[in-house]
Every structure is written in structure tokens, then in C-alpha cells.
């Protein structure tokens, strides 16, 4: 019974909101329908013209199935079955079901935005001047300096550290010697990091400091270290020990192992113009849609009582869940907003519309 009710609820949505072909009835009598009736369901004619439109709305591949009259009869039978189910759903009052009303709202909102908003902002309306302005304000995304990646062993001395400067230098030189002897062996360098490095953060990452620009390296480790790291393309090369000192006499020796290199990226406006066009189009569309909604808020005298927000209760533990846990149990990520903030559209499957054996897909995927 539960599955049957879901099917009828879905049919009520389709029959009431997607123009199933039935004409509203008043006082138990069908409103006159213009056209030649090909069937009558619950007192309401289904006309040749209506059936033709339904057939024309199918894809060419689907229409090709219905060339001869026997197949056309199958199409008609499918439509009659659809109309009978929709009529039963209405007879049971499902058009007043909150689930149906919500689904109808989603459908008619999508139709409103398609017919009244979609023409306001089109891709062809995006100008070269707008594209150029966007490029200039986001140039850093398309023009990046050369970068290098390295792993390091840091050996601190002085201050609260156990080693003196001379001891740290000797240990660093030994690391250079061992690492150079096995410079192609990256796992070996990690063992040196684990054994000798006194910097907890980089030691936990196996010594990896990821990709940095020359300016980044100079700021963290000094000009000599930056010059060495960007001096050649020899990946896996091992540096001499570079000394860093602090005002209190403490310091460290740092040994680098180059692990990667990225050339500079310089992409001009013409290189990214088409890519930017789609971004600017989406931005303009989003802005225009906000304006469209604001116009409707004024037209319909919207009032908001934000002081009531505190009455909404949400389990604070939900915020601790990973993002991929926020779905609807079917891998769809729940019922969040779709493009332009429009809710997703629930639709019957093709077999239901054509009168095939598929029926209507239930929420849980059962037919």
C-alpha cells in the first residue's frame, strides 16, 4: 500500500503540474475541450491534438517507435493508463498532500525561471570589456612564478637545544654526505629526516616543504638557500648545509633535497578568454537572478521575522560530520540547492510517461 500511495502521489504531481492533458473539472462536469477527442478519462476528453503534442515532445528516437497504428495504440494506452492513475490520485485528494504541493512548487518555480528569467542573461551578452576586467582582477590565477619543491633536514643548535653550533654543523655535514651518496633514494632521505631533524612540523611530513617560490624560500631559509634550490633542474640533488641564526644565538643548519620543479606559468588574456567567458556568464547570471528574486520579493510584499530563527533547532553534532556524510542516503548529497538556487526537479521515468512497464520511480528507487 505504501508503494502504491507513492506512485499515486507522483502521478498526482505529474497530472496536476506537468500538464498531463486533463482539463480541470468544475461541479462534476468537464470543461469543454477544443479538439477531436481520442479518449475520455473520468469525464475529461483526451484529444488528438493533446496526444500529438505529447508524441512531438518525445525524442526522435522514441517517436520512431510509433510509426504504425499498433504502436500508436500502445502510446495511447500508455497515456490512458497515466490519466487513469492521475484521476485516481486526484479523487483521493492527493493534490492537497504536502508532498505533492511541495513537488508542484518546485516544478512551477523551474518553469517560471525558465520562461521569465533565462532570457535576461545570455552567454552572448558577455562583452570583451567584462572579460578583460575579470582577467585583470584575477591575473594571479593565470600568471604564476617558477616554483620548486624540496625536503629538508633541520638540525638546531644553541639556546635550549642540546647541540652546540659545531656539533650541529658536523651532524649536518654527515647528513649531506649520506644523502648525496644515495641521492636517488628518496625513502633513504626520509630516514635521515626521522633520525636527525629537530623540526617537528617538517619531520612529521618526511621533511617535505612542498612547492615554494624563490621569494618564499628566501623568506624562510635565506637567499643562499633560495639561490641553490632554483639554480638547476637536477631533481634529487642535495644541498650543502645552510646556516640560520637567531638573535639569541640559537640557530640551525638546514640540508635540502630538491624533489620537484615547476616552470613559470604566463597565460595571456587570449589564452584564457573562452574559459573566463563561462565564469563571467555564471557570475552575471547569479547577480541577475538575485535581482529578479528581489523584484519578486517587493511585488509579493515579503516579510521576514529573523528574531524567530532561534526557534529552529539543529543538532550541533551534525556540524562535526565530514562533508561527504551530508547526503540523502543514496549518494546524492541531500536536497541542497541546484543551479541558481533552484531545487531539483522530481520527474517520472520515461516508461511511465509512455505507458510502458516501468511505472513511477519511488523515493527509495523501487518501482
Structure description:
This protein has 367 residues and is α+β, with helices and mostly antiparallel strands. The chain has 2 domains: 2-117 and 329-354, no CATH class; 143-266, Chitinase A, domain 3 (Roll). Helix content is 45%, strand content 14%. It starts with a helix and ends in a 13-residue tail after the last helix.
Provide a short characterization of the protein structure.
The chain has 367 residues and is an alpha+beta fold.
The radius of gyration over CA amounts to 34 Å
Tally the helices: what do you get? 13
Strand order of the largest sheet: 7-6-9-8
Instruction: Specify the structural class.
Output: alpha+beta
Based on DSSP secondary structure assignment, what is the total number of beta strands?
Answer: 10
Task: Give the overall average pLDDT.
Answer: 79
List strands and helices in order, with pairings.
Layout: H1 2-17, E1 25-26, E2 29-30, E3 37-41, E4 44-47, H2 48-56, H3 60-63, H4 69-91, H5 98-117, H6 128-137, E5 143-144, E6 147-157, H7 165-181, H8 186-196, H9 200-204, E7 208-213, H10 214-221, H11 223-229, E8 242-245, E9 251-262, E10 265-266, H12 269-299, H13 350-354
Antiparallel strand pairs: 1-2, 3-4, 5-10, 6-7, 6-9, 8-9
Helix pairs in contact: 1-4, 1-5, 6-12, 10-11
Amino acid at each position: 500500500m505504501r508503494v502504491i500511495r507513492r506512485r499515486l502521489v507522483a502521478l498526482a504531481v505529474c497530472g496536476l503540474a506537468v500538464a498531463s492533458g486533463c482539463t480541470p473539472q468544475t461541479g462534476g462536469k468537464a470543461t469543454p475541450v477544443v479538439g477531436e477527442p481520442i479518449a475520455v478519462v473520468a469525464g475529461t476528453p483526451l484529444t488528438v491534438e493533446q496526444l500529438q503534442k505529447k508524441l512531438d515532445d518525445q525524442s526522435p528516437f522514441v517517436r520512431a517507435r510509433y510509426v504504425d497504428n499498433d504502436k500508436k495504440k500502445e502510446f495511447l494506452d500508455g497515456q490512458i493508463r497515466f490519466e487513469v492513475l492521475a484521476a485516481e490520485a486526484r479523487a483521493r485528494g492527493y493534490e492537497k498532500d504536502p508532498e505533492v504541493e511541495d513537488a508542484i512548487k518546485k516544478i512551477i518555480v523551474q518553469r517560471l525561471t525558465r520562461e521569465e528569467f533565462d532570457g535576461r542573461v545570455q552567454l552572448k551578452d558577455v562583452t570583451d570589456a567584462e572579460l578583460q576586467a575579470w582577467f585583470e582582477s584575477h591575473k594571479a590565477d593565470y600568471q604564476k612564478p617558477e616554483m620548486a619543491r624540496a625536503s629538508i633536514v633541520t638540525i638546531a643548535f644553541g639556546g635550549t637545544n642540546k647541540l652546540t653550533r659545531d656539533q650541529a654543523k658536523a651532524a649536518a655535514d654527515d647528513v649531506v654526505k649520506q644523502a648525496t651518496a644515495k641521492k636517488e633514494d628518496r625513502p633513504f632521505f626520509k630516514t635521515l629526516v626521522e633520525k636527525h631533524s629537530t623540526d617537528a612540523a617538517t619531520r612529521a611530513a618526511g621533511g617535505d616543504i612542498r612547492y615554494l617560490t624563490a621569494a618564499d624560500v628566501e623568506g624562510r631559509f635565506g637567499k643562499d638557500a633560495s639561490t641553490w634550490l632554483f639554480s638547476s633542474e637536477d631533481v634529487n640533488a642535495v644541498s650543502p648545509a645552510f646556516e640560520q641564526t637567531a638573535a639569541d644565538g640559537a640557530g640551525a643548519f638546514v640540508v635540502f633535497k630538491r624533489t620537484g620543479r615547476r616552470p613559470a606559468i604566463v597565460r595571456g588574456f587570449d589564452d584564457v578568454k573562452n574559459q573566463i567567458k563561462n565564469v563571467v556568464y555564471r557570475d552575471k547570471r547569479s547577480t541577475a537572478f538575485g535581482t529578479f528574486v528581489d523584484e519578486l520579493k517587493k511585488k509579493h510584499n515579503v516579510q521576514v521575522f529573523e528574531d524567530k530563527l532561534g526557534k529552529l533547532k539543529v543538532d550541533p553534532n551534525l556540524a562535526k560530520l565530514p562533508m561527504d556524510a551530508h547526503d540523502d542516503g543514496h549518494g546524492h548529497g541531500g536536497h541542497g540547492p541546484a543551479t541558481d538556487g533552484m531545487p531539483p526537479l522530481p520527474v517520472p521515468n520515461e516508461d511511465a510517461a509512455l505507458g510502458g512497464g516501468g511505472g513511477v520511480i519511488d523515493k527509495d528507487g523501487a518501482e
